[in-house]
Amino acid sequence: MMTVVEKYRPRVLDELISHKDILTTIQKFISEDRLPHLLFYGPPGTGKTSTILACARQLYGEKEAASMVLELNASDDRGIDVVRGPILSFASTRTIFKKGYKLVILDEADAMTQDAQNALRRVMEKFTENTRFCLICNYLSRIIPALQSRCTRFRFGPLSSDLMVPRLLHVIAEEQVDVTDDGMNALVTLSNGDMRRALNMLQSTNMAYGRVTEHNVYTCTGQPLKSDIANIVDWMLNSDFSGAYRQIMELKTLKGLALQDILTEVHTFVHRVDFPMSVRIHLLTKMAEVEYRLASGTNEKIQLSSLIAAFQVARDMVAAEA
């Protein structure tokens, strides 16, 4: 069964919903037959791979694309041997019966080793006449400066909600999914501008519950509900330490919540509460430390205790200021 993400992946450049300035520039490159080496970077699910695949279809058509395009993903081995082997042999062979240049797509290029990137510099320069390279990555800083300077860079930013909603509504209408208004808001909020993630959440929530509501979306993705976060903050500020710890642990166990997700939502909640500046700074500093320690793989129970302690100190600070 094909996933919704692949089923509704844009096939041509005109179907892409965002980054119109980038698409206009690329269309101009193609129409004038002056396509440079490309470097697409930005967060996942923002249309980088879809854009270059649509370009390939426009350049070569469905039939020719197989022989004119070499696509390598991070799941393939992409050490120096691959650059010196398959990539070099593909780039160096000329097209006898077909005019134009070949296209090498290196998806998730930031997973390439340093040696492979260095080897790629020479290949890109040597075979520019008959081959174009498109590097796609999430983190620009992981691509060596020498490769960056050989490419025209385009940043694909997160999609805005007003771009995502019409596309989601199109998929919902095609698939006849029952989605409520709060369910739609939850999809857009939790996806953080990642169209792929929004569609995956839509599909999984619909398959699990048959109806996409805010509660179902949050439950399906394992994210804490806003009401749960309000309760957690209330317990940390108003209950004694032992009571707050016990209630939060019970909620975590009952709903299968991760402390990392709770911490992210509590951080957003703290910004909305009108704390005195010194108290807010104290809380944000302590939460940053807890997140850092969680990322280092420490014990969740100990870090939860630390988080509760930070809020108990904040309560005392508020009382002292009052």
Description:
It contains 15 helices and 5 strands. The chain has 322 residues and is an alpha/beta fold. Strands 2-3-4-1-5 form a 5-stranded parallel beta sheet. Helix 5 links the parallel strand 3 and strand 4. Helix 8 runs parallel beside helix 10 and helix 13 runs antiparallel to helix 14. The radius of gyration is 25 Å and the shape is elongated. The chain starts with a helix and ends with a helix. The model has no long low-confidence stretch (mean pLDDT 88). Its main location: nucleus. InterPro entries: AAA+_ATPase (IPR003593), ATPase_AAA_core (IPR003959), DNA_pol3_clamp-load_cplx_C (IPR008921), DNA_Rep/Repair_Clamp_Loader (IPR050238), P-loop_NTPase (IPR027417), Rep_factorC_C (IPR013748), RFC_lid (IPR047854). One of its GO terms (cellular component) is nucleus.
